[in-house]
Design a protein that fits this description.
Strand content: under 5%
InterPro entries: Diverse_Substrate_Transporter, EamA_dom, EmrE-like
Helix content: over 70%
Largest sheet: none
Shape: globular
Structural class: mainly alpha
Number of strands: 0
Pfam families: EamA
Protein name: EamA domain-containing protein
Number of helices: 13
Keywords: Cell membrane, Membrane, Transmembrane, Transmembrane helix
Main location: membrane
């Protein structure tokens, strides 16, 4: 099979789109760090630049999904309120906290902390439904946070700026918390609006929130005063790490389903660590790789348990009418 035929086959079954989506999301931290290296830009200014450039692309996603099959009924006022709340937690607060954290920690550690968000989703679900965690769930979460602790302690001890690593890690963990809340809220809305339309609407709303924050807290001209290198990084973030991955993920889900798309998404931390090594000169230590392996194993165990639970629930509910048309 020649290279052209290989890529056509990947595109037809969705694997290529899933890989592109994972790669695009994983490069976001790299572009942020490159911007910080290029100039002393404020986090909110850089985020405003990213969202200014991404806003037309989010509107493009809304236009593409205007006749999507996921839409159920008309877009109501309640739908609009829910989209605004999702935008607040998702692309606005989660992104802002992440940008703050990347001022202090490496891109590899940032991706590792963000990758723990499924554990937070599980905790929030157990609190909401008053469920007791199984032994397997507790063990998987313990392994996950053990790995995170290994990587975090190494980064703290590797430099004389341990306090900054702690501050940055707390900011990124706050980003993971807000993203987990966003993720929890997307379930019903994705079924109602479709993933692409929801991403476009929530992204557009969050862009306006970020720009409002910027104009209230920063001089209006500070964005235009940034050098070309920072604008290039912002443009790459907007295109490669914000809108296109959402589009690619939607295409992948259509072709190979959510389970396989999520499995490919597990490549994200690995891609970030190696991209940080290649483009930013960040060292790859045995401690970091050990931490990565533990975190990925813990998350894999959690996702496997969740998938098994979903299958059991589906079998138990066979023959019953679905609550979602």
């Amino acid at each position: 099979m020649n290279l052209s035929a290989f890529f056509k086959r990947c595109a037809s079954n969705g694997s290529l789109f899933a890989i592109l989506s994972a790669a695009g999301f994983s490069m976001k931290a790299i572009f942020v760090k490159m911007a910080y290296i290029a100039a002393p830009v404020e986090a909110i200014t850089l985020l405003a630049m990213r969202m200014t450039l991404a806003l037309p692309l989010f509107l493009w996603l809304v236009w593409l999904s205007r006749s999507g099959t996921g839409t159920v009924g008309r877009f109501s006022l309640g739908d609009g309120a829910r989209v605004v709340v999702l935008a607040l937690f998702g692309y606005y607060l989660s992104s802002l906290f992440d940008f703050y954290g990347l001022q202090y920690i490496s891109a590899g550690l940032e991706r590792l902390i963000l990758f723990t968000y499924p554990t937070l989703v599980l905790v929030f679900q157990m609190i909401a439904f008053r469920e007791r965690p199984s032994r397997r769930t507790l063990l998987a979460m313990a392994v996950c946070y053990l790995g995170l602790g290994v990587a975090l302690l190494h980064d703290i001890g590797a430099t004389d700026m341990g306090s900054q690593v702690i501050i940055g890690s707390l900011w990124v963990f706050a980003s993971a918390v807000t993203y987990a809340l966003y993720y929890l809220g997307t379930g019903v809305m994705v079924k109602r609006l479709g993933s692409m339309r929801l991403a476009g609407l929530a992204g557009s709303a969050s862009s306006l929130m970020v720009l409002a924050h910027f104009f209230v807290t920063e001089p209006a001209g500070s964005m235009l005063a940034q050098p070309a290198q920072v604008w290039i990084c912002a443009a790459l973030m907007a295109l490669i790490s914000t809108v296109l991955p959402v589009y690619w993920m939607a295409l992948a889900i259509q072709r190979i389903g959510t389970t396989h798309t999520a499995a490919v998404g597990n490549l994200g931390p690995v891609l970030t660590i190696f991209a940080a090594w290649a483009l930013l000169g960040e060292a790859i230590s045995p401690y970091q790789m050990a931490g990565l392996a533990l975190v990925m194993f813990g998350i894999w165990q959690l996702k496997a348990g969740a998938a098994k639970k979903a299958v059991v629930a589906e079998v138990a509910g066979a023959g019953k009418p679905s609550s979602v048309s």
